[in-house]
Structure prediction request, 404 residues.
Amino acid sequence: MSPRTTDVWAHPLTATLTTTADPEALNTARHLLAGTHPQLNVNPGFATAKFALPDGRAARARLIVEELTAAQWDRIEAALGARTPANSAIGDDLADPRHTAGIPLLPSAQDLSHHCTCTPTPAGGPCAHTLAVGLLLAERLRTAPAPIFTLRGRPYQHIKKRLRNDEPSALKAAPAQTHVPSPAAPTARPATDHAPVIPAQQPAPMPEPANLDLTTARPALTGPLAPPPAPLPELPAQQALVADAAHRARALLAGTEQPTGTDTGSDLARFTALDHGGPFRQAAMDHLGLDVVAMGHLTLAHTHGGPGGAAAYLHRYTLDHDVLARAQADIQPLRPAPNAAVECEDNHLTDPAAGIQLRYGPDGRWHPYLAPYGTWQPVPGPDAYPAQAYRAARTAARAHRRTR
Prediction:
């Protein structure tokens, strides 16, 4: 995305919100934002923020945006992939539907709906709180148009990654969002609920016992094994699987076995970091749609944070607004520029002024990231407490500056 300040995205959204809005509610919304910076959380299909009511309650306002379908996103990605160069095709010109297969990314008034807890029953039109959410979103779009992609159902980082991949599989639909359980309180580490659902299978019948001669000596293997018949994996893959099973058995006996992830990407990060998995690194990159740099970052994410760190690198998760709000409050005393805006999207908490990002993973920890070369990369120090993860990121940033 272009880093320059622009009204290409923000002005049309503001006009859509304000043209038919009740003038009194609109004035109240602007008054709510005067001199304050409520936290805006952007998720697929909605943006939300929280406002204090005069009676002490909190009004949770939600601006709901119609998501584009997978077929529409496929058409948009196909149109972007036809541009030259494809990997730089995401810019401010995409506000014009002529560049996105005739499908507008900016929502119309018919694509928007409003919901707020300030009143028990819906009012005749949007309340001041949901209008304030829309104005906050428009302000965010002036410097960071990326949220519009998330709102419409597909984060632009995902699109850029697929456009950089020359394989035809790069234009497939994005993976579905996953919900990460929120911690009940900052002092408690949340439990995960991501155990895979395994379909019931009928056990195969037990074979008859083999009549083995255990007394006669057997000749040692003197030549290469014959290739296994189809559809079995090729011999190198079978040997790597045997080596991996032996490696995990040794770790289990020694009491050093690390937890394994429930998703393919996390386990591939573990597997390819080992000697017997190294030869399959390119195959893993092709399977996950990652380039060399991204695969290196995935390995780092697993090294620093285990399966949870790898999952936080690969996937975005829907996270409760209050969890992000508590995390922002925890890191506020540590921020070098406390008055600068903090960006919240899905399970990502970003402090652009400090160059720090925290990602909440399925393991209940915040995983720290830096972007010294313009791309977010994981650094050591994931923690259940966001302040500790933020401190780890600042420590890593100081170490990086000393080595430059």
In short: Residues 292-314 form the longest helix (23 residues).
